[in-house]
From TrEMBL:
Boundaries of every Tail specific protease domain copy: 198-469
Coiled-coil ranges per UniProt: 205-232
Keywords: Coiled coil
InterPro entries membership: ClpP/crotonase-like_dom_sf, Tail-specific_protease
Source organism per UniProt: Chryseobacterium camelliae
Protein name as it appears in the record: S41 family peptidase
Keyword Coiled coil: yes
Gene3D superfamilies: 2-enoyl-CoA Hydratase, Chain A, domain 1
Source superkingdom: Bacteria
Length: 497
């Protein structure tokens, strides 16, 4: 049944859908967004958005595959300027046998780290020394097509919250080859034309088989120790989402890096870290949330409780479009037969809890969340000087956290404008709609989440107190300008300058 389902999906994905049916999908997407999105006209007027959807329908005059249709509809949805609102690109599905085959092979493009600058794509890390390609190499073409063509095409698909100016290149460097693979599949070879030191070279990348040692390493990495759980280990790139250390011999400077607010074992991580900070009597704390795309509100609420000097409320009351919105979250989504049966048994409890958490006041529908209640500071809360490192890759929950810290004057923000908006975003939980004819998935955030602050109304990200930027040369030289500025500032303060 599973193989049959995959086959049916892939056949539908490559079939052409009549223009009239695609226009029905445009109307369906527009209607569902209007129905469920709690602040749809935040960054675009109703007239502007209606015009864009109507104009799109005028351009659809022939049959298209779902993928072709995606590249026409997604730019319109991106124009709403809500970073969480985006169609899921209709990528090919694989059978279990195909997945196992791919697992036994090394990635091709995923084994590099990238940097995007305008219409240029650079390799900044080559962990496996593939073809001895040097960091700093620019990829000019992929299979004879200029990379600039793809960058222009894919940029139209990405939106941050509002009129943010920094998010796109950070997100694009991470998702570029997701788009590319959706278009061209997971091939075993690719020809790339590169430029390094003014010399143009052509390489053929190959998806090679993993050695026995590689497979053993993969197996070892999957083993979950307590340390891996607490620091939220990610086997895919052999790294940790959370880390803690002291940066000075006297332990006066503590450093916490969080790559994602996943919540997994986060309470123990912060409890242990801040106990060590208190015991060491550290005077300075650096929190690094650069390239952190967000995650759990409960985790950032807990982190804030270790920084607050008095009781606080992290976010304002969260708004919905209707009292029934929480029941549109596709409760049975991705459930196998046993999960479906179990969820069916507890569904009445789920309905009751969702209904209980939803209430109406002054004609506005609200949803109760833990982060909108008053929270007391932790007993090991830090009361020294806090620096927070941010950049355009700091999105969603990262922006909620930094906006609150800045408003309450609890930290000095160092870096560049965050990718998420200062005044809130639309996320919380989602309704996963499926367009009826193209079958493309459209997740719609149902909750307006806003930090409990005085709003700036700038329609931008959180702006740093101290602007520090980096370029590709800094990355290649492993020169961390953000940390350099903070360490210099701390040094000056220690020396009384």
């Amino acid at each position: 049944m599973s193989c049959s389902s995959v086959k049916k999906y892939n056949e539908q994905r490559t079939s052409c859908i009549p223009a009239e049916k695609l226009k029905e999908d445009v109307d369906y997407a527009h209607a569902k967004i209007k129905e469920m999105h709690p602040k749809l006209y935040w960054y675009i007027s109703k007239d502007q958005l209606d015009y864009k959807f109507d104009s799109l329908k005028q351009t659809i005059d022939q049959s298209l595959t779902p993928l072709e249709f995606y590249f026409k509809l997604q730019p319109v949805i991106a124009s709403i300027k809500e970073g969480h609102l985006s169609l899921r690109i209709p990528i090919k599905k694989f059978t279990k046998k195909e997945i196992k085959s791919l697992y036994n092979k090394k990635g091709m493009f995923s084994r590099f780290e990238y940097y995007v600058d305008g219409e240029h794509l650079y390799i900044v890390e080559n962990k496996d020394s593939i073809e001895n390609i040097k960091p700093g190499t620019e990829i000019l073409k992929i299979n004879n097509i200029p990379v600039a063509y793809y960058l222009k095409k894919y940029k139209k698909l990405i939106s941050s919250d509002g009129y943010n100016t920094t998010f796109q290149p950070y997100f694009l460097k991470d998702i570029f080859f997701n788009f590319y693979s959706a278009e061209f599949g997971f091939n075993d070879t690719a020809k790339i034309e590169t430029l390094y030191n003014k010399q143009v070279k052509v390489y053929t990348l190959k998806r090679t088989e993993k050695s026995k040692a590689d497979l053993e390493k993969d197996k070892e990495q999957k083993k979950k120790t307590l340390e891996k759980k607490v620091n939220d280990y990610v086997a895919f790139n052999n790294s940790y989402n959370r880390s803690f250390k002291f940066l000075a011999p006297d332990s006066s400077i503590a450093y916490i890096k969080v790559k994602s607010f996943s919540r997994s074992y986060s309470e123990k991580f912060y409890k242990d870290a801040f106990a060590k900070i208190k015991n060491a009597k550290s005077k300075y704390l650096i929190i690094d949330i650069r390239n952190n795309y967000g995650g759990s509100l409960d985790e950032i609420n807990n982190l804030y409780s270790y920084l607050a000097p008095e009781p606080f409320t992290l976010i304002k009351r969260s708004q919905l479009t209707s009292k029934t919105s929480p029941l549109k979250t596709n409760y049975f989504r991705k459930s196998n037969a046993w999960q479906y049966a179990y969820k069916s048994l507890i569904y009445p409890t789920y309905v009751f809890s969702q209904t209980f958490n939803t209430y109406k006041k002054d004609n506005i529908v609200y949803y109760k969340m833990k982060a909108d209640r008053e929270t007391k500071p932790q007993k090991d809360a830090f009361h020294g000087k806090v620096f927070v490192l941010i950049n355009g890759g700091s999105f969603s929950a990262s922006s909620v956290l930094t906006a609150k810290l800045k408003n309450d004057k609890l930290a000095t923000l160092v870096g560049e404008e965050t990718g998420g908006a200062n005044d809130g975003t639309i996320a919380g939980f989602y309704s996963y709609q499926k367009l009826p004819n193209s079958k493309i998935s459209l997740p719609i955030g149902l909750v307006l989440v806003q930090p409990n602050i005085s709003f700036t109304n700038t329609e931008r990200g959180v702006l740093p107190d101290v602007t520090v930027t980096e370029n590709i040369q800094d990355i290649l030289n492993k020169k961390d300008r953000h940390m350099e500025w903070v360490m210099k500032e701390i040094g000056n303060e220690k020396n009384g300058k």
